[in-house]
Amino acid sequence: MSNTPRTTWQLGDRTVNRLGYGAMQLAGPGVFGPPKDPAAARAVLRAALAGGVDHIDTSDFYGPHVTNGLIREALHPYPAGLCIATKIGARRDAQGGWLPAFSREELTAAVHDNLRNLGLESLDVVNLRAMFSVHGPAEGSLEEPLAVLAGLREQGLVRHIGLSNVTAGQVRDARRMVPIACVQNHYNLVHRDDDGLVDMLATDGIAYVPFFPLGGFSPLQSAILSGVAARLETTPMAVAIAWLLQRSPNILVIPGTSSLVHLRENLAAASLVLPGDAVAELDAIAATS
Ligand SMILES: NC(=O)c1ccc[n+]([C@@H]2O[C@H](COP(=O)([O-])OP(=O)(O)OC[C@H]3O[C@@H](n4cnc5c(N)ncnc54)[C@H](OP(=O)(O)O)[C@@H]3O)[C@@H](O)[C@H]2O)c1
């Protein structure tokens, strides 16, 4: 692990800052319905861009349709360098449950919904979100949904295809069918099942975008993490972000927050360099958990 992380990486045909922003937390509780204060949510989005973010992760199943609407209201017309990555492959039921939506009709409708709700003529990156299991990546063929997505790309509605919640085998199979711009799986300094996949993708120049980079709905807690943060006079979340940035140059970090204070703290983590002894201590958290 290098301790002088590069600041940008390729996402499809764009070069983006490695510290981006995940918009999921802007929807209402349980990622369902609108937020209590939509103006505050829009302010977070504007502050993210003002702070140098040029990669936003979203989906029309956040809300549903809520975060995309907030992004359009806050940021449209979009600055030229902004890359918005979205996801398809799931839908919400009336109670907010998450269901697969993998049919040709559902995938096609999802691309058109994202285009309309974001106010775009083509989507920069569309991740196909696998839903074979609610607990994480699971075996299953992505061939049919990927063929649908490849067709939408040929029509010019999608510029780059990514994968989410997938196994290394599914990534390999998908790459035989279409170019894959990025992989978005659960990964952070405690949850490191994808260590091998991160390194494999780095070798091929493909972005790896961890979801739950700070631990998700229950942010990471560890005495070691708190100890390292105290020693470096920063916060545990800043250390968690810096650890990801130092872990591999192809990692794009998309911490989610609905708070301006947290956003600023997260953006500041881009300049935090962890010394080797701190990295070794942090690596031990996953090894022992
Ligand atoms: N592909 C997928 O299946 C998938 C799944 C989940 C997420 N995602 C994407 O990944 C992005 C990131 O994941 P996430 O937002 O779920 O989880 P996360 O970034 O790991 O953590 C977000 C949580 O951390 C809190 N937080 C953020 N900054 C903080 C700080 N500086 N100090 C203390 N707490 C802080 C947030 O609360 P506050 O709002 O109070 O700051 C929120 O509760 C999402 O926004 C979404 O775009 C994708």
List the SSEs and their pairings.
Blueprint: E1 8-11, E2 14-17, E3 21-22, H1 38-50, E4 55-57, H2 66-75, E5 83-88, E6 90-92, E7 98-100, H3 104-118, E8 123-129, H4 143-154, E9 158-164, H5 168-177, E10 180-184, H6 195-203, E11 207-208, H7 223-231, H8 236-247, H9 260-268, H10 276-288
Parallel strand pairs: 3-4, 4-5, 5-8, 8-9, 9-10, 10-11
Antiparallel strand pairs: 1-2, 6-7
NADP nicotinamide-adenine-dinucleotide phosphate binds next to helix 9.
Pfam family, one: Aldo_ket_red
Protein name: Oxidoreductase
Organism: Pseudoduganella dura
Defining key terms:
289 residues, oxidoreductase activity, globular, NAD(P)_OxRdtase_dom_sf, 7-stranded parallel beta sheet, Oxidoreductase, alpha/beta, two-stranded antiparallel sheet, binds NADP nicotinamide-adenine-dinucleotide phosphate, 10 helices
